[in-house]
Amino acid sequence: WIPVTLSALLRPGRERAGCAQYALPHLMRQDAASIVFLLEGLKKEVDEEADESQTKEADESQTTGEAAGDPTAMDPMATFKIPGVTDEDDDGSDTGDGSDDSGDGSDDERRSAALVALLKRARAASLLDPDTGVAFVCESVSIASGIQMPPGQTKYPVDERMLAAATVCRDRGTCKEALELLCLDGKRSSLPGLLELRLLRRALPCAMRGESAAFRNA
Predict the structure, then answer these.
(1) How crowded is residue 11: how many other Cβ atoms within 10 Å of its Cβ?
(2) Which of 17, 80, 140, 193 has the most other CB atoms within 10 Å of its CB?
(3) pTM value?
(4) Which residues pair with 157 in a beta bridge?
(5) Which of 194, 108, 92 is nearest to 100 (CA)?
(6) What pLDDT score does 166 carry?
(7) What are all long-range contacts of 152-159, with beta carbons under 8 Å and residues at least 24 apart?
(8) Cβ neighbours of residue 19 under 8 Å, at least 6 residues apart?
(9) How far apart (Å, rounded) are the C-alpha atoms in residues 115 and 6?
(10) What share of the chain is helix, strand, coil (3-state, %, to 5)?
(11) 167-178 tens-digit pLDDT
């Protein structure tokens, strides 16, 4: 049921919301280790797309640069972009309301929304490590999953790249939920961990630049 659930979480709108609200809590109670496989599935998608994108951009940049004599062709910083910011943002054509013309959003937006939904349900089910916020899945669940982890680690790490992308997601609802996930955990005595603070330092300046007054105030 892991692939089917992951596919539903990557769907837009009501399908994702229904899966996250009604299916995930029951499934996680029956199989706590499933959170690791769901997170691993999202991470694999991101890795595969990143590899394809880097290979394509490198080939196009080298070919174009050699043909036109472009001095920036071999400069990796010449094409560097801030996550969540597109060419539309640079030329000011974005409306800033977080909407997408297609109505479904991009693959990145759907993955960010799926990640936030997963982590919210995992936290509610006490599957995340309480000492590190959203940085790791708790040790017992990580070991039970049987997933191979980095040497010296006994807790499955949540991918920081995906969390960072969610905090600057163009979809305002997903972005707001991601920031709430980093700031709030339901325990008044606990403070954000190192990962949360690092992500918040990057995300808050971008959030404060939003054109929507309601989003900035939230």
Answers:
(1) 16
(2) 193
(3) 0.69
(4) 136
(5) 108
(6) 92
(7) 155/129, 156/36, 156/39, 158/39, 158/119, 158/134, 158/195, 159/39, 159/42, 159/43, 159/46
(8) 5, 8, 9, 11, 117
(9) 10
(10) 60, 0, 35
(11) 988 888 898 899
